C-alpha cells in the first residue's frame, strides 16, 4: 500500500487506531469487561462476609453486627473474622487459605492495586482476617479452627444477625493436633506480615511471631486437623499436611530470610499437581520456590524440581502439557466439579508466573512449545473473561457485575431482607420462606463468585442449587490480584 499525502497517512493511522479499539472492545464477543469494577466488587464481597462488630467505614450497608459472643462458651474471644460461604460457620482451614491468597494477591500486585485505589481495601480485607486469627491463637500450641456447627447451621436459614444456632468453638492443641491447619494459619500470618511490613512494622512483627509459633507447632505435632476437629470432616476434610508444611515453610523463609525454614524443601516437591486449592498447596510452594530461583536466592540445581513441577501444571492449563486440563466447549478449565475456585487459583498462578517471566526476562518450555509471559496473560484473560460474562450463557458468575449474573446465589444473608429494613428476627425455619422464594435475592452480594457452570457451560440460577450457586470466600481471593493486573494491562 502506498500512502501519498500526510492527510492520507493520518487518516490511515486513524483507521488503524479505530480498528484496534474496536477489536479491543468487541473482539472477544463481549461489549466490555471492566476489570477495575470487578476488582472493586471483589473486595466489597469480603465486607459482606464479615462476622462480628462492623467498623464505621463498612461500605456494605445491608449487613449488621452478628455473632458478638463467638468463643464465649470456650472462654475465649472469637468475635470477628469471616463466614465461609453461604452459611454462617467460620471454618478455619479454608479461612486461613483465603487470607494467604488475599495476601499473595496483594504482595504480587501491590503496585496495580495502589494504582486502582484498592490497596487499602485489600489490606483491610486481610487485616479483618488476621485480627481474628490473632484471637484464635491465644497460646503457641492452641489454635481455634472452627466456630459454629455445620449440621445445625445448615439446618437453619437465617441472617447471621439473627443466628439462634449453637456457636461451639473447636481447637487444636498438643493432645489433639492438626499440622495442616496450624501450618496454613502460619502461612497466612507470614504472608500477611509481608503485606504490612512497609506500612505497619509493629503489626507485621506481631503477625510474624504468630507465624513462627504456629509453624513450630505444626512441625512438631503431626496429623490432619479433622481428627481433632471432627466436626470439620464432613465439610473441609484435609487430605494431608505435608503440602501445608512445605508451603508454610516457604512463606516463613520469604518473611524471615532464615535458612532453617528451607529444611522442609528437602522432602518431596509434590510432583505435577492436578489443582491448587484450600486442600492442596504444593503448587503454591512450587511457584514461590520458582520465584526464589529466578531471584537467584535458591539454587536451580538443588530446587529445580519444584520449578519444573510448577511449570508442568501451567503447561497443562495452557493445553501444552502431557496431561492437559479438560476445557468446556465455552473455553473454561474444568477441574473436578462445578467449581470456579480451581479456575481462579490456576489463573492466579498463570498471572503471577507471567510477572516473574517478565521481571526476569525468562521463558519456559512445555512439551507443546516455549511459553512467553504474554501467553500466560492471554490465558489468564480468557479464564477471567469467561467468569465475568464472555461465555455461552453471557452470564457473569461474579454477582453484581453487569446485569446478567446469578440472582439467587445460595447465601443466607443475601437472600433474606436486610435487618436494616426489617429488624423482625427471622427464625431458624422461618427463613426457609426466603429460601423457597423464586424472587431474586434482596441484597446484591457484590463480588461473590458462584461455584459456576457445569461441564456443558450450563448454569441453573436457583437458590437451592448449592452445587452451582453457592459462593465461597476462597474463590474470590485469587481474583483480587488477577483483576488488579488485568485492569492495568487491558484498559
Ligand atoms: C467501588 O464500589 C463502591 C461501592 O459500590 C462505589 O461507591 C465506588 O464508586 C466504586 N469505585 C469504583 C472505582 O468503581
Ligand atoms: C449471548 O450473546 C450473543 C451475542 O450477543 C448472542 O448471539 C447469544 O444468543 C447470547 N446467548 C445467550 C444464551 O443469551
Ligand atoms: C419451603 O419448602 C419446603 C419444601 O420445598 C417446605 O417443606 C417448607 O415448609 C417450606 N418452608 C417455608 C417456610 O415456606
Highlighted features:
binds 2-acetamido-2-deoxy-beta-D-glucopyranose, 47% helix, 7 strands, two-stranded antiparallel sheet, Glycosyltransferase, mainly alpha, single chain, 491 residues, three-stranded antiparallel sheet, disordered N terminus, 17 helices
Layout: helices, strands, pairs:
Elements: H1 6-26, H2 35-48, E1 90-91, H3 92-108, H4 110-115, H5 119-136, E2 143-147, H6 150-154, E3 169-172, H7 179-196, H8 201-220, H9 242-256, H10 282-294, H11 300-317, E4 326-327, E5 333-334, H12 340-359, E6 364-366, E7 369-371, H13 373-387, H14 412-415, H15 432-436, H16 466-469, H17 473-489
Antiparallel strand pairs: 1-2, 2-3, 4-5, 6-7
Helix pairs in contact: 2-17, 3-5, 3-7, 3-17, 5-7, 7-8, 7-9, 8-9, 9-10, 10-11, 12-13, 12-17, 13-17
The structure holds 2-acetamido-2-deoxy-beta-D-glucopyranose (3 copies).
Active site: 410
Pfam family, one: Glyco_hydro_9
Signal peptide: 1-27
What does this protein look like?
The strands form three sheets. The protein has a three-stranded antiparallel sheet with strand order 1-2-3. Helix content is 47%, strand content 4%. It contains 17 helices and seven strands. The two termini are 31 Å apart. The chain has one domain: Alpha/alpha barrel (Glycosyltransferase), CATH 1.50.10.10. Strand 6 and strand 7 form a beta hairpin. Helix 3 runs parallel beside helix 17. The radius of gyration is 23 Å and the shape is globular. The protein is mainly α and 491 residues long. The site of one 2-acetamido-2-deoxy-beta-D-glucopyranose has 4 residues, from helix 2. This is Endoglucanase. It comes from Lithocarpus litseifolius. One of its GO terms (molecular function) is cellulase activity.
Amino acid at each position: 500500500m502506498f500512502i501519498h499525502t500526510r492527510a492520507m497517512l493520518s487518516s490511515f493511522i486513524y483507521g488503524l487506531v479505530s480498528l484496534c479499539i474496536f477489536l479491543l472492545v468487541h473482539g472477544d464477543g463481549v461489549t466490555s469487561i471492566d476489570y477495575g469494577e470487578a476488582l472493586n466488587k471483589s473486595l466489597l464481597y469480603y465486607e459482606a462476609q464479615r462476622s462480628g462488630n462492623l467498623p464505621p467505614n463498612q461500605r456494605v450497608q445491608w449487613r449488621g453486627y452478628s455473632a458478638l459472643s463467638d468463643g464465649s462458651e470456650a472462654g475465649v474471644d472469637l468475635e470477628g473474622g469471616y463466614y465461609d460461604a453461604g452459611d454462617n460457620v467460620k471454618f478455619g482451614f479454608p479461612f486461613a487459605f483465603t487470607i494467604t491468597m488475599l495476601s499473595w494477591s496483594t504482595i504480587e500486585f501491590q503496585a496495580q492495586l495502589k494504582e486502582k485505589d484498592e490497596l487499602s481495601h485489600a489490606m483491610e480485607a486481610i487485616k479483618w482476617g488476621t485480627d481474628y486469627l490473632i484471637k484464635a491463637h491465644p497460646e503457641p500450641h492452641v489454635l481455634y479452627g472452627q466456630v459454629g456447627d455445620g449440621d445445625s447451621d445448615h439446618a437453619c436459614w437465617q441472617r447471621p444477625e439473627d443466628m439462634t444456632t449453637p456457636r461451639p468453638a473447636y481447637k487444636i492443641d498438643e493432645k489433639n493436633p492438626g499440622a495442616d491447619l496450624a501450618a496454613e494459619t502460619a502461612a497466612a500470618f507470614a504472608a500477611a506480615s509481608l503485606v504490612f511490613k512497609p506500612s505497619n512494622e509493629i503489626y507485621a512483627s506481631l503477625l510474624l511471631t504468630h507465624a513462627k509459633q504456629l509453624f513450630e507447632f505444626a512441625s512438631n505435632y503431626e496429623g490432619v486437623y479433622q481428627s481433632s476437629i471432627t466436626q470439620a470432616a464432613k465439610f473441609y476434610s484435609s487430605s494431608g499436611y505435608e503440602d501445608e508444611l512445605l508451603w508454610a515453610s516457604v512463606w516463613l523463609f520469604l518473611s524471615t530470610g532464615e535458612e532453617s525454614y528451607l529444611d522442609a524443601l528437602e522432602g518431596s516437591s509434590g510432583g505435577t499437581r492436578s489443582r491448587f486449592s484450600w486442600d492442596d498447596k504444593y503448587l503454591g510452594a512450587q511457584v514461590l520456590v520458582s520465584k526464589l530461583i529466578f531471584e537467584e536466592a535458591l539454587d536451580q540445581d538443588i530446587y529445580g524440581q519444584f520449578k519444573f513441577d510448577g511449570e508442568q501444571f501451567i503447561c497443562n492449563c495452557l493445553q501444552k502439557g502431557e496431561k492437559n486440563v479438560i476445557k468446556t466447549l465455552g473455553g473454561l478449565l474444568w477441574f473436578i466439579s462445578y467449581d470456579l475456585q480451581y479456575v481462579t487459583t490456576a489463573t492466579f498462578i498463570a498471572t503471577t508466573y507471567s510477572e516473574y517471566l517478565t521481571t526476569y526476562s525468562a521463558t519456559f518450555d512445555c512439551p507443546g512449545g516455549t511459553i512467553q509471559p504474554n501467553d500466560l496473560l492471554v490465558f489468564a484473560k480468557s479464564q477471567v473473561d469467561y467468569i465475568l460474562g464472555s461465555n455461552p450463557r453471557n452470564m457473569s458468575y461474579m454477582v453484581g457485575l453487569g446485569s446478567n449474573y446469578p440472582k439467587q446465589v445460595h447465601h443466607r444473608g443475601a437472600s433474606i431482607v436486610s435487618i436494616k429494613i426489617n429488624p423482625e428476627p427471622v427464625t431458624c425455619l422461618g427463613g426457609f420462606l426466603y429460601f423457597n422464594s423464586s424472587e431474586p435475592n434482596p441484597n446484591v452480594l457484590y463480588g461473590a463468585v458462584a461455584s459456576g457452570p457445569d461441564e456443558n457451560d450450563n448454569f441453573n440460577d436457583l437458590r437451592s442449587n448449592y452445587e452451582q450457586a453457592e459462593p465461597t470466600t476462597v474463590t474470590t481471593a485469587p481474583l483480587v490480584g488477577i483483576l488488579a493486573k488485568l485492569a492495568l494491562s487491558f484498559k
